[in-house]
Design a protein that fits this description.
Shape: globular
CATH superfamily of the largest domain: Zn-dependent exopeptidases
CATH topology of the largest domain: Aminopeptidase
Radius of gyration: 27 Å
Strand content: 35-45%
Number of domains: 4
Oligomer: single chain
Largest sheet: 6 strands, mixed
Number of strands: 26
Distance between the termini: 67 Å
Structural class: alpha+beta
Amino acid sequence: MWNLARQPYLSAMKFVILFLFVALNSDAQDTTVLITSKKDTTAHINALKDTIAVKPYFLVRTTGPMPYLEYGPGDDRLGGAKMTYLDSNLLLQVVDSLATDYKVQLSKNHFAYIPKANTKADSVTAKKPYYLSGSWKVYGDELQDYISVQLDERLPYRSQQTLSPSGLTIDVYGTTSNTNWITQTGTAKEINNVWYEQVEDDLLRIHVQLKHRQHWGHYISYDSSSGKLLIRIKRQPPLKSKNLTIAIDAGHGGANTGASGRITKILEKDYTLKFANELNKRLKRKGYKVFMTRTSDVDISMIDRALMLRRLNPDLLLSLHLNSSANVVIKGTSTYYRYIGFRPLSQTILKRLLALGLANFGNVGAFNFALSGPTEYPNCLVEIAFLSNEEDEKRIADPKFQKKVAKQIQKGVRDWLKNLDN
C-alpha cells in the first residue's frame, strides 16, 4: 500500500506514471488494482490523497453434496439463475467477494458466482499458468455409456443439451487441449460420435452426438480413483411400461406447507400427496414401477430429494405442485422444464391436462426449480391448478378431479413414449 498524501509536490503527471508502473508490473490475472483519487478544484494540485491497494486472488474448492454456479449475483424466490451443478473438490479462482457469494473466474473470458457455503479455501494448491487435457476413452458397460477425459486438475464444466440431432456440448473451463487420440472401444450403445474443439485459448468444448432423439439423461463428475473427468450417458430403455421406473415427488410436506386455499384453506402439502397417491395407483395399474419421494406428511429438503433420486436413478421424474397467485383471477394448469431435451414430456402432459377444461397457464422453460435441475433423467414439474383461484380450488378438493388428473398425466407419459424412436 502506497500513501501519497505526504508528497504534496508530486505532479499529476508523476502520479499517472507511478500508477502505470504499478499496474504494468502487477500480474493482471492475479491482482486487482483499486484507485481512489481526490483532486483540488483549482488549477494547481495542492495535495494528492490516493491509495493504491493490490489484492491478490485466492483459490477455493467446491464442497457439499450439490454445489452449483450461478450466472450472476441476482436473486428471487427461486434463488439465483443457476448455470450448472458441479462435482465436489473442483478448483475455482476467486476474483471478488460479495455478501454471500464469490465471483469466480472460470477461464480468461468467463466468470460465474458461487455461494460461499459451497466452497472451502485451498491454501495448498499453486495455480498453474495452464491446464492440459490428455487422452480420452469412449466405452460402455451393461448399464450406460461413458466418456473419460484425462485432465491436469479438477476444473469446472457446464453441459447443454442440443436437438436435431440430439447431443451434448460440454465446456471444460480453464483447459487447453493436449489430446492426440480418442479411443473408442465399440461398446458404447447410445453415443454415436465424440469430438472436441478448442473454442478459446483456455476453453475446451466436448461434442457428443447421441443415437436416439430423446435425451434420457447424463451425469458429469470426476472419477475418485483416476481423477479423470467422467461423462455418463444414459441409454434409451425399452419403451414398454414394465421396463420403466417413474419417480413421483409430492411437493412440500411437514412444516413446509406450501400454498393454501383462498376459500377452504386446504394446504398444498396435503393435496399434492393426494394427487401423487392417485398417480401412483394409476401408473402401477399400467405396469410401471413407481417410487414416491414421500408417502406421508414429512418435510424432506430439496437437496435430500435430489440425492434420493440420484441414488434411485429413475427413468423419469414427475413432480406435483399446486400453484398460487396474489391475483385471484389467475387460474389454470402448467408444466415446467429446465433443459430443452426434456421439454417434450412436459408438452404431452400439458396437452392432456388441458383436455380437462383447465385454463392454459403455459409450458414454462428454463425453470430454476431445484428438482428441474438434475440432468440425470427427464423430469417434468406439474402445477396442477391454482389454490388461490376459487374455481380451481373447488376442483383441487374434489376426489374425482384428483383421479382425472392422474389419468391425464399417465396418458401424457404414454403419448410421449409413443412419439419416441426405437
